Amino acid sequence: MRLSDLNLGIELEPIASNLKLYPPQEAAMKAGLLDTANNFVISSPTASGKTLLAELVMLKSILRDSGKCLYVVPLNALAYEKYQNFKDKYRSVAAVGISTGDYESSSGYLERYDIILLTLEKLDSLTRLKPAWLSEISVVVVDEAHVLGEEKRGPRLEGALARFMSFNPSARIIALSATMSNVEEFGNWLQASVIKSEWRPVPLKEEVFLAEDDRAILTRVIEEVKEGAQVLVFVNTKRGSASFARKLAVQLKMRNKELDKLAELVDVGVDDLAELVRFGVAYHNSWLHPEQRRAIEDSFRNRILKVICCTPTLAMGVSLPAKMVLIRNYKFFTLGRGVEPMPVCWVKQVFGRAGRPEHDAYGLGLIVAKSEDEREAIERVYIDGELERIESRFSIDTMTEQVLATIAGGAQNIDQVYEFLDCTFYAHQNSGEIGFVKAELDSILEGLTRAGFIDMDGDTIRATKFGTLSSRLYLSPNSALGLREGITILSDSKASDFDLLLLLGKCEEVIPLKVKNAMEIAGSLSDNHEWVYNSAHALGTAIIAHAWIDEFTYPKLKEVFGTYPGEIHNNIYVLGWIAYAASMMAEYLQDDEMYARLNGLKDRIRHGVKTELLRLVSIKGVGRIIARRLYSAGFRNEEEVANANLKRLAGVPGVGAKRAEKIKEEALKVCK
Q1: Which candidate, 504, 509, 538, places its Cα nearest to that of 521?
Q2: Would you list the DSSP string of 449-486?
Q3: 566 with 626, same domain?
């Protein structure tokens, strides 16, 4: 069957090419994907055509019914990849938009788009805010739907879908996954038609590779590369991925002009990544700044880079197919649980990247064993074993946040909260226990009332101003309480900037960074010893953030604290959001001084500058480095730049004539 054989109608003719449908795509068409209004769950391997099916459903809704569609993904990087892809393909027939942050905003500007790319967190946020345009959504595509089974992020996706389905039941849900064993159960929850297939466009060989040490692994990887293959090597730690990349680079040595150019792009002066890249190898983990990561991923897609040594997070990331995928370590360390084997579904996600339809006759997935006994165990579990079931991860803590989100989103009585719970995957999987859960709801509601998040009068419920604000700001209940209490404590003392950074770093949303001798360093940055002592787990985060707003460069931060650009960037992004949330909390508490300080701190975190540069970085195109050079040359604010002599402005190191004109033009806009 070909796409053009389907008689899709005049609206879809421009995009209905003579493409031959893959078996899973043909099965979906025969099941009524485009002829019915049914929900669908489509489970088939990577590269088997799931995304095209979702695209056709969205385009049919847009072109025939003037519909509006959401495409939900788990990661920012994946959202931007899909955004670029959809925009390039469909700009003539659909307006494509994206939103991955700005959690407090209802993002009214999104109303003008036909296809909207969202992260699951943004979807969760929107279902709390319930902007009017959300009721106009006709199709929701959930890519990587198996994320619902993840411990941390799963409950937010589940809660968001349950809320969305309760207030917009007519919208179609199209769930996509490559690794979902209980697809029928998931389909029953969504009242969906199910398409399940094991077909792949490129055959996949899954094997256990016996290697006592890295020498055999290196030899195998290099053999594949010399035969023209690209390889992904999965290692269980960040340091391990970089170390293995170094071992490969020493032996590979495939230097050329394209690799030299890539090396210049990724060199930020913190380690030897650029030197590895010159020889055709890179590591890929959370150490990378987003710009480095994009450059590495693009070069791999363009077949310039030959090997990427990566950590497990890449399995959930952007599309990077390779001829061979090798899992060097199948056990990993989890805080609180120690070392444990990877789930089978993760291994299958990784193996799914092996084999490029346009380049390879087959894909090869290897998992390393160090002994014959281990080989047999790996083969039994990962090659011949079954995928884990996707299970709801709702717990009392996560349910508390989701119940508050539902009340803040408009639920006015207990029955409406029950209605939300009945829509969850948890209720579907645990129908015999839902009565017990509803009994537990009483204690959840009592706790929310005691904390000041909600008010209750009999069966009537409403969110307080504090509860609504906490939910709108996308804070966990514990973080909201911590900010409220911390602002009150710090407003009664002479809090330093470091004290405020500790306040932000204590929030659950912030991943802690570690620094040697943190307590000693903290003592030099704060006189509030009790506050420092009670914030021990956030000291490293606050110390690095303090150095960032003190204008430490990435190389300096790496030299002093051993922290990499990607780790800093990710933390700074979250801290900026938490600083904004804290400023809104201070405004709610009517603490004008703390509001002003936290608002200023938010801008300093965003730009990485001292207070004296804030007005200069308000000029579009002026970052922290150019702002400091402008300041050193005597420019103090946007007015002085706007009124500057162009020759003098161009003489500032790093500015030049062309940039001087642009900066002056932007400064004039700020002054108006």
Answers
A1: 538
A2: HHTTSEEEETTEEEE-HHHHHHHHTT--HHHHHHHHHH
A3: no
pTM above 0.90, yes or no: yes
Confidence (pLDDT) at 122: 93
Give the whole-angstrom CA distance, residue 97 versus residue 116.
Answer: 5
Task: Look at residue 104 in the predicted model and tell me its pLDDT.
Answer: 67
Instruction: Give the 3-state secondary structure of residue 591.
Output: coil
Q: What single string gives the DSSP state of each residue in 485-548?
A: HHHHHHHTTT--HHHHHHHHHTSTTSPP---TTHHHHHHHH-S-HHHHHTTGGGHHHHHHHHHH
Q: Is residue 641 part of a domain?
A: yes
What value does the mean pLDDT take over residues 53-80? 93
Picking from 378, 393, 10, the residue whose alpha carbon sits closest to that of residue 207 is 378
Residue 4: pLDDT over 70: no
| Positive or negative: CA dihedral 622, 624, 625, 627 | positive
State residue 439's pLDDT score.
81
Domain boundary among 383, 408, 436: 383
Check if the beta carbon of residue 484 is closer than 8 Å to that of residue 585: yes
Residue 435 has what pLDDT?
Answer: 78
* Local structure of residue 379 (DSSP, 8 states): I
Dmax (CA) of the chain? 77
Locate 407 and state its tokens. 């009340």
pLDDT for the residue 397: 82
Reported as a pLDDT band with limits 50, 70 and 90, residue 521 is: very high
Which residues share a beta bridge with 195? Answer: 42
Q: What is the pLDDT of residue 56?
A: 93
Neighbouring-strand partners of residue 460: 413, 457
Distances 281 to 7, 12, 211, 229, 259 between C-alpha atoms, Å: 47, 43, 21, 13, 9
Domain finish residue from 137, 166, 196: 196
Q: Give first-to-last CA distance, the chain, whole Å.
A: 61
Separation CA 4–CA 510 (nearest Å): 50
Residues 371 and 258 placed together within one structural domain of the fold:
yes
Domain contains 129? yes
**Are 515 and 568 part of one and the same domain?**
yes
In whole angstroms, give the CA distance from residue 401 to residue 654: 48
Q: In this predicted structure, what is the pLDDT of residue 59?
A: 93
> Cβ–Cβ contacts within 10 Å for residue 260, how many?
12
**Amino acid present at 601:** L
Per-residue model confidence as pLDDT tens digits over 173-202: 999 999 999 999 999 999 999 999 999 999
pLDDT digits (tens, 9 = 90+) for 497-513: 999 999 999 999 999 99
